[in-house]
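Sequence in, structure out. First:
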Amino acid sequence: MTLPTASALPLDQVYTRFSHNKVGGREYKDQKYKKRPLLQLLTSSSKDGKGGGKKIVHPINLGTASNGQSLGRNEEFSIEGDSNETWAVYDWRTVIETVFVSWWDLREADGNLYKMLKILDSRVDETRENMEDNILTMLCATSKAATNDIDFLTAAIKSTGAFGGLNPSTSGQSVWASEVEDTINWSVEGIGRTREGVNKVEDNKGDIDVIVLPDQYFNETCEIGDSAVVLNQDLKTRGGTKYADLGTKVPLILNTPVMRDPKWNAANANTGIGIDTMGTHLVVDPNWDMFMWPFKEMVWHGRLGQASVQIKVCELTQSSRRTNLLLSTIA
C-alpha cells in the first residue's frame, strides 16, 4: 500500500489517517507555534473586566498644582481646589478564530470516540494558538490593520497623542504621557539611557516590570552582560572550572529584566518599551475569554462537517500612562 505524501490535503479529500500504526500515541504534535513571552506577561497580569458593559472605564486622578503655603501667626489663607478626577474610556474589542472538522474525519473515525476526541483536541488547540498569535500580532503592530483591532502597545506607550480619551496636549492632562528616551546609540549609551528612563518612571511612582527589546539590541545587551560575568572556580578541580555557564540569558538593567519576543522583533526593529503592568492592562471579559461555541453542522452552508468559533473579548488599556517607558529610534 502506498503511503500518502506529506503535502497539505484539501478538506474534501479522503485520507485514511487511522489505518497506520501511530508511534507515541495518537496526539498530534505541535510543529507550528512559537513562544509568546510578551503575551504571557500581559495575560498573567490581565485585569478581569467583570463581564458585560459597553465600555472599559479606568477612574483617573490627573493631579493638580500645589496651593499650599507656610503660615504665620494670625495670617489668613485662601481655600482653593481644582477638579482632578476623570476617567480613561476604552471600547471592548472582539477577536475570533474559526475551526472546521470535516465529515471525512468523522467518517474515518468510524464511531471511535477516542480517535475523534484527539482530532477535536488538535483542532481546538490549533484554534487557540492561532487566536493568541493574532492577538500578539495586534499588540506588537505599529498601526492597526483593521479598525476593530486591539490597540497596539506603541500607541499606548508614548508621550503624545490621545489614548483612552485623554491627551497630554490638552490642558490639565499633560501627565498623561509615557517617559521617552529617543535616538539611542545602543552599543555606546543604551544601558545608560535606559537607566535614565527607568529612573524617570520611578520618579512618577512607577515600577517597570520588564524591558522589551528587538533581537539585535537584546543580544547586544546580553553580550555586555557576558563580559561582566565572573565565573567562580571550582576548588575541587584545583583551580579549574568543571562547568561554565556561558552566555547571559536574562540581562537586568537596574534589577529590571530585559526580554525579547519574536513578534515584537518582527514589527519593531528599532523600538523598545518598558512596561509597568500596574499601569498597563490587557482587560478581559471573563465570560468571553477564549469562549468556544458548540460545534454546528455546516451542510446548510455547503460544507460537510462541523464548525465552531472561538471568541475573546478584551482590550489593551492604561490606567497610568506615565509609568511606562518608550525607547525609540535605537541604532
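Second:
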Amino acid sequence: MSKESEVKTPAVDPVASEVNYDEEIKKAELEAKKLELLIKKRQLEALDLEQEERTYHIQDLKQSLAERSVKEKQLQEDRAQQGRTFEQQRQTDNYRFSICTHRKGGMVTPRDLRVLSTGGNREQFALIKHQMINGDIWVRCQRCGKTWAPPVEKNFFFDERGRVVAPQDGVFSQVKFDEAYKDYVAATMLNTNNTMSGSVQCRFTTFDPESKKMVDAADKYREAISNTNLR
C-alpha cells in the first residue's frame, strides 16, 4: 500500500473531551436551576392569586352577612309593626263590640249614622245565625260585625303580658275560656226573627293510632276555622 492511500485518523485529546463534558453538565445544571426557579416563581404567583381570591371571597361573605343582617332586622321590624297594627285593630274591634247593643231599630239621620254600628233599641236582635257543616251554630251581629263561635283552647294561651300566644309559648287560661264559652252560648240564645241559615251536615273523623280506630275530629275542624268569622 502506498503512502498516498493511507488515511490518517486525527488524534483525540482526552483532556479536551473531559472539559467539553463538564461544560455540558454545567449548562444542564444551570438550565435545571433556571427551571426550578421559574417553577417557584409560578408557585408564588399562584399563592398570591389564591390569597387575593380568598380576600375577595371574605369581603363578599362579609357583605352578604351584612345584607342578611339588615334584611333580618327589617323583617323583625315589619313583623313588630304588623303585630302592633293587628293589636290596634283588635282593640278597636273590641271597643266597637262592647258599645254595640246588637239590636235592631234605632233612628238614623244623615248627620248621625252611629246606630248602624252601635245597634238599636228594639226587642229583636240584629243577628245572623248560621249552622256550620259540623253542626256548630255561629252568630254574627249585623251592626258591629262581632262573631260568636265555639271557643277553642289553642286561642286561650297567654304570656306574662296577657297577649295571646302559641300554646308552647304561654299558659292556658281556663277562666277566660269558660267566659268565652258562656258568652257564646248566650249569643246563640238571643232572640231574633231572622231565619238561621245552614249547611250540609258532615261528620269529621280521624284515625287514632293508639286505638287503631276512627274517632271524632270535630275539635280539629273547629281549630282549623277558629280564626275566621261570618263577615
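Remark: Residues 97-224 form one domain.
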